[in-house]
Amino acid sequence: MRAIVSVSDKSGLAEFARGLCDLGVDVYSTGGTKKGLEAAGIRVRSVSEITGFPEILDGRVKTLHPAVHGGILAKRNLPRHLEELAKNKIQPIDLIAVNLYPFVQTVSREGVTLDDALENIDIGGPTMIRAAAKNFPSVIVVVDPADYSMVLDGLKKGGLNIDERKRLAQKAFQHVAMYDTAIAQYLGQGDLFPENKTIALKRIATLRYGENPHQKGAFYAEQIIGVGVSGLAAARQLHGPELSFNNYLDLDAAANVVKDFDLPTVAIIKHTNPCGLASHQDLAEAYRRALSGDPVSAFGGIVACNQPVSLAAGEEINKTHFDAIIAPGFDSRVLEMLKRKANLRIVELPDLMALGRSPALDVRRVSGGLLLQTADSFGEAEFKPRVVSRRAPTEAELRDMFFAWKAVKHVKSNAIVIAKDQMLLGMGAGQPNRVVSAQLAVNRAGEAAKGAAVGSDAFFPFPDGVELLAKAGVTAIMEPGGSVKDADAIAVADKYNIAMVFTGYRHFRH
Q1: Which pLDDT tens digit goes with each residue over 34-66?
Q2: CATH of the domain at 173
Q3: Would you call 134 a catalytic residue per the annotation?
Q4: Helices (H), 331-422
Q5: What beta strand segments (E) does 60-155 contain?
Q6: 89 carries an active-site annotation
Q7: Same domain, yes or no: 491 and 389
Q8: Best exposed site among 186, 447, 498, 505 by fewest CB in 10 Å?
């Protein structure tokens, strides 16, 4: 039995190669892999002994040779293939252990040049992997060091069965696909929507179930050139039961809400919508205000903080039952206290405030395909709201309008948010009629709506929504504008002395 071993990731390599040698396998290798194995005292031969040709072009050409690929691709159950090998003095190759140059790591380094990137595009490796995977009934292909022990155990028992070989081949093709996707991403930077596009995903968690118990689920990290592991994929769970599918959805929604605010901010999320949200110089006070927005709905929800959780804030949070809490960090005393709750999931995301800054696209599945879009964000320099009512907002109203406008971006459309003193008082979400959303927000806010500000994710198609909010006592409204009925909405605002501001931006979230 003959094997070619040529890897970039040398984890467990010496033990694997030694195990092959102990089984009587002739091990051939190239370049740095060969030197490493020899340094470990392992018998290894050069691939040049197979090809009869030296490595050339600074190692660019080592294994691209008929003696290698003929030995890999020959079908052992076809006599004419074996006769052809014998005629050309080619011996079969039975095992390929290959993984590829660290392209992603290379191009993620600061200051990397195009030449550096091109030198880290592996050619011989993917070719051998694909050849071995194509001929998996005859050739074992190993791309993941985690499979070394399984392969050795199988060989000791007389060989791998067809299902084991097939699984390794699938893994091999996927390994090359991830690699090729990374290269295409790098070369296509700046082109967000090319004609053909692949998305590379690596599973980091198998979930107990999906959105409902009868559904299966898993969490995958997206491979994005220049970004590395980010978002929830970079989070660390410090305590509590394993995260569920719905936990991940709500944690993501919660973290994305608070990262939009500069002041210490707390969000309480239920079914991906904020039922509580507040900003304050003191994080503990921000939490108290967020909770007061809807203490009933908050029960069993998700809490997010955009600052490390202080002892004072942790003591307040500890008074209510939540499923999970996510923050950039936790005071050690807070962790000790919160960990007494066995079912509370505690998640640390140090780069929480960096969410949304990567070039990742928002992906939505529809029947037969995917919809891709850039993130719903825009720079402060591009944001030029304009007063359209007779009365301009006061400084306090403008502050609350901006708070409501940031909040409404994270509420399901049609969305209305009522806020005052940088605290969410009421919201209406996911209604087919904007007036119904406004009514729900008013019902939740109650008397507190008097003197409050409103954020609407889209324009008011008719003035009735503005009228309803005005009668509830709202004094300031921020909305995108753009309706053919804008003049009617402005007229109602002027009638009730409401300050109305148009943003020019819509915040639909379906």
Answers
A1: 888 999 999 899 888 888 887 778 777 777 889
A2: 3.40.50.1380
A3: yes
A4: 332-338, 395-408
A5: 95-98, 140-142
A6: no
A7: yes
A8: 447
